[in-house]
Design brief:
Number of domains: 2
Structural class: alpha/beta
CATH class of the largest domain: Alpha Beta
Number of helices: 18
Shape: globular
CATH topology of the largest domain: Spore Coat Polysaccharide Biosynthesis Protein SpsA, Chain A
Radius of gyration: 25 Å
Strand order of the largest sheet: 3-2-1-4-7-6-10-5
């Protein structure tokens, strides 16, 4: 039983307006009304921010806000430098190289799929054919397949749209479940075929529809930079999902564009997305690279040794960082991720957060262990900051709620006004990276930050617990003796409780919301003396 067909929007992913087109009169009126509501709220709500009893709370929230916003705007500034100054020069040089007639000798597509929607698969194949036609060179599609259903669709579609092209389809049917094993089998087949080191291979998912120019814009970079081993590309989402989920995903992809350009300025990135990244073949056919993708694992003091279920993009990134490879982001190489959500959208989004956060946490510790001598300092610090941010993001809402409960509900209202204004400022930057100006971004962004931080805190104590809705709704954990499993679960729950409680207690003590008993006793003794 296969899922229902996807949206007809797959044939026309959508028009990307020029920057000025997004800022139409309707949008400007909506923003003006938003600001007016905030101004009215400020004037009506009693100012409790600097009351003597709780002003220290405001100082703590303000300090954290300045710190986090400074880091965020550092990324924004770096993104502007890369997107407006650095990359346009690369782009111009790349066009000159292509105009001179240079092309790689052969183009490869490494694609994995499993019981995908027919309409999605057909759109994906059409996207690949466009790339081969634009490149004007022979190509091979290496298909890591788990079912004949997908193979038949791809073969038939190629006969329809690529009969005039030199495209070879090689099907590698996996005999072990999971996307990682499918990739490993494909790469082993490429290695046996002795694919030349300087050929280019596109790693892509079976639900990623490439826009015209996606591959062509990546190719000359490998000619320009002999030490470049991989590039990752831009993504936009086609979401068959509730409206709030569409906004959430759109906002996340806008954030991704900003962050990727900031990271690329350091000659590295934080992920080589499995949706679509382009590699020089040299490394991907080595035994170390293949084994890392097939059987990447982590040794944990509590959970023991366990394999990674998803997160192949984190494994490829770790390999490249470990070997000092240059990595870049190509903002004008775009494709469309298709998200078809059936059932409970909230549950699906939470599971996505758990998968994304778990992959980041499992990979982050070992990248940090490489040290700033091996990884550019800015990139290394980004991984460190991910660990810090998941805790600090929970501080502000926690102390705001505590201040409202212990002193005045007006404090919480003023905190929400602060969130409304501050996230509007951040959204104004993100809208320049988004397809449309969406007034839900300020609140979607804040909810995303809090929920993501909470999920990360939960996941960091349960790194072995993994679930992936794709490829048959796979689940993974640690099997073994029931008593040992119960003890591990109990210990993880205890760690979570201690961590969250310690954070909350430290914060409310630092903000002066409550006094330590020892301080009161000291005052009593000294005053009595």
């Amino acid at each position: 039983m296969f899922p229902k067909p996807a949206s007809p929007r797959l044939n026309d992913p959508g028009y990307w307006p020029a920057g000025w087109e997004k800022w139409n009169l309707t949008v400007l009126i909506q923003i003006a009304l938003y600001i007016c509501v905030c101004a009215i709220a400020i004037s009506l709500v009693p100012n409790k921010l600097f009351d003597p009893e709780i002003r220290q709370v405001t100082y703590v929230i303000g300090f954290l806000g300045i710190w986090r916003f400074s880091w965020w705007f550092t990324h924004a500034a770096r993104a502007v430098v890369y997107g407006r100054l650095v990359y346009p020069k690369m782009q111009a040089e790349g066009r000159r190289i292509l105009d001179s007639g240079w092309r790689p000798k052969h183009l490869h597509f490494m694609m994995t799929t499993y019981k995908e929607h027919r309409a999605i698969t057909e759109a994906v194949v059409r996207g690949m054919v466009v790339q081969v036609r634009e490149a004007g060179i022979p190509a091979t599609i290496w298909l890591g397949s788990g079912d004949q259903f997908d193979e038949d669709i791809i073969e038939n579609q190629l006969k329809l749209v690529a009969a005039d092209l030199d495209i070879t389809l090689r099907i590698i049917r996996q005999n072990v479940g999971g996307k990682r094993m499918a990739i490993g089998l494909v790469l082993r087949a490429m290695s046996r075929a002795n694919v030349p080191d300087d050929d280019i291979v596109v790693f892509m998912d079976g639900d990623f529809i490439m826009e015209s120019g996606a591959v062509r814009n990546c190719l000359p970079l490998f000619k320009m930079y002999p030490d470049l081993q991989a590039v990752t590309t831009d993504e936009e989402v086609i979401a068959e999902a509730p409206r709030w989920m569409q906004s959430m995903l759109s906002m996340r992809f806008a954030q991704r564009r900003l962050a990727m350009q900031s990271h690329a300025l350091a000659g590295r990135v934080l992920t080589l997305t499995g949706r679509m990244s382009v590699f020089r073949v040299k490394h991907v056919k080595t035994r170390e690279f293949i084994r890392l993708l097939e059987a990447d694992y982590l040794d944990h003091w509590l959970w023991g040794g366990f394999r990674f279920l998803s997160g192949d993009d984190k494994s490829t990134l770790y390999y490249m960082l470990k070997h000092g490879a240059r990595l870049l982001y190509v903002p004008d190489a775009r494709g469309y991720t298709v998200e078809v959500v059936e059932g409970n959208g909230v549950n699906r989004m939470i599971q996505n957060y758990r998968r994304w956060s778990g992959n980041m946490l499992r990979n982050g510790a070992r990248v940090i262990a490489l040290g700033p001598a091996r990884v550019p300092f800015f990139i290394w610090w980004c991984f460190v900051d991910q660990r810090i941010a998941m805790w600090t993001m929970l501080v502000s809402p926690a102390v705001a709620v505590a201040a409202a409960f212990l002193h005045s509900p007006a404090y919480l209202i003023q905190y929400l006004i602060f969130i409304a204004i501050s996230r509007l400022m951040l959204s104004a930057v993100l809208w320049t990276y988004a397809r449309t100006v969406d007034l839900s971004y300020p609140w979607v962004m804040y909810i995303n930050q809090v929920v993501n931080a909470a999920v990360k805190v939960y996941s960091i104590f349960r790194l072995s617990k993994q679930r992936w809705f794709n490829r048959g709704d796979q689940k993974a954990g640690v099997s073994g003796d029931r008593l040992i499993s119960m003890a591990r679960e109990g210990m993880s729950a205890y760690q979570t409780f201690v961590g969250v409680t310690a954070l909350f207690l430290i914060v409310i003590l630092m903000t002066g919301l409550v006094d330590m008993p020892g301080i009161r006793l000291f005052h009593f003794v000294t005053q009595g003396a």
